[in-house]
Write a structure and sequence with these properties.
420 residues, Arc Repressor Mutant, subunit A, 3 domains, five-stranded antiparallel sheet, two-stranded antiparallel sheet, 9 strands, 52% helix, 15% strand, transmembrane, membrane
Length: 420
């Protein structure tokens, strides 16, 4: 996998491809081979593709990012992943899976305490605007086209159920959107919380400029990304647009200004300077809203920049090396645990060994997992340190004999060389 990625590395990959003189069809095959290896490593590392339901759930609420952020899909390639998913079917993929794919592993929790004055005002205006649309039956004019799937109700998803390793983990979402409008909540400090993806990896390719064939594949690794702020990891983000609060302020100021202006003009003796003053005030207030929005956008862009600095773990080759190291460690740990159980408890069937390994992990580390017993047994058989009796039960050779069979490790050889 690392050798293949060297051909598609955003830094030096183009030069290596040029040196190899591959045909376009050969490059297509190589990049699909890389994706096959990459997805296999992600599966071995217990990363899951963020599916459509999780995306809908993430978009059903807000956390710290209150400005709408979208991806400029015109800057992303849609051929690389489309071809892969056409040959390797996956269920419930999100709409953007032809342009970029998001992997996640682990569920955590993020809490933030603050006054959130501007966010609370925005929430109140948004609620009032929503009720106004409902009362006037104008909601259909502003609502998006209905999807084929039922829309997730954000009010009913304050308890997030995420299935991990066949076990359900419930994380309560505490958000301003569902907060009670009490005096203490409006004017006091409140704490909001959101489930996080402990690790997130994003893979995508930028669209090639005209006349060029950019084959670079970008891989980025993040940590502790709140679900509702998943926009943080999106590639090629567009600048945010106005919030409901900005639109309401703008519309109300324009309406009030126009009403005042018309009333002044209808007077028998309309004062020219009064009209100029009204127009100037209206223009000044609109300019204030615009520049306030620009300031808010700059603030949130700084938040995104800081979040990227704090939350981005690695990218490109560094991410792949981290994944490979994770897989190797996991494979070794599986073998050690399986051998330890056989050494301590004696002969066992595959099912018994599987159960005993899971119980050991639960007792010693407090973790529930689905132990891949057959994978561990196959590795132990290849090493030659286990055998089977006449009825198929698995048993291990003594520890000293197992060490002799495996031989010295690379680390042991290095230590001996240093000592000599």
């Amino acid at each position: 996998m690392m050798e293949l990625f060297a051909l598609f590395d955003p830094v030096h990959g183009a030069k290596k491809l040029e040196q190899q003189n591959f045909l376009p069809e050969e490059i297509d095959t190589l990049e699909q081979n890389f994706l096959s290896y990459f997805f296999r490593v992600m599966e071995k590392s217990n990363f899951n593709i963020v599916n459509d339901d999780e995306v809908e759930l993430a978009h059903s609420g807000q956390y710290l990012l209150n400005l709408p952020i979208k991806v400029d899909e015109s800057k992303l390639d849609d051929k690389l992943l489309s071809k892969y998913f056409k040959e390797h079917r996956h269920e419930n993929l999100p709409d953007f899976s032809d342009k970029y794919v998001i992997f996640r592993r682990g569920i955590g929790l993020d809490r933030t305490s603050n006054f959130f004055f501007m966010e609370k005002v925005d929430m109140i205006i948004a609620r009032a605007w929503r009720r106004f649309l409902e009362k006037t039956r104008l909601q259909k004019l502003f609502s998006r086209k209905k999807n084929s799937k039922p829309k997730i109700d954000s009010k009913k998803n304050d308890d997030l159920a995420s299935e991990i390793e066949d076990k359900e983990l419930y994380v309560e979402r505490i958000r301003l959107e569902t907060m009670d409008l009490s005096f203490g909540n409006l004017f006091g400090k409140v704490t909001i919380q959101e489930p996080t993806f402990e690790e997130v990896i994003v893979l995508y390719r930028r669209k090639s400029p005209k006349g060029q064939d950019d084959r670079a594949i970008h891989v980025k690794h993040f940590k502790n990304i709140p679900m509702a702020d998943m926009e943080l990891v999106l590639p090629e983000k567009k600048n945010p647009s106005l919030t409901p609060m900005d639109w309401v302020q703008f519309i109300v100021s324009v309406v009030i200004g126009l009403v005042t202006l018309i009333s002044s003009l209808e007077m028998p003796k309309a004062d020219f300077w009064v009209v100029i003053a009204i127009l100037s005030a209206l223009a000044g207030y609109c300019a204030k809203i615009y520049f306030s929005f620009q300031q808010n956008m700059a603030t949130y862009q700084n938040l995104i920049t800081q979040s990227m600095y704090d939350k981005q773990l690695d990218s490109g080759k560094g991410t792949l090396l981290h994944l490979c190291d994770d897989v190797i460690q996991q494979e070794v740990k599986e073998v050690i645990i399986a051998y330890y159980i056989l050494m301590e408890n004696g002969k066992a069937t595959s099912d018994d060994l599987d159960l005993q390994c899971e119980e050991l992990i639960q007792e010693e580390f407090g973790l529930q997992c689905n132990f891949e017993v057959m994978d561990a047994v196959q590795k132990l058989e290849r090493l030659g340190v286990i055998t089977r009796d006449s009825i198929g039960r698995i048993c291990c050779v003594p520890l000293k004999r197992a060490n002799e069979i495996i031989g010295a490790t690379t680390e042991e050889l290095v230590m001996k060389a240093r000592q000599s």
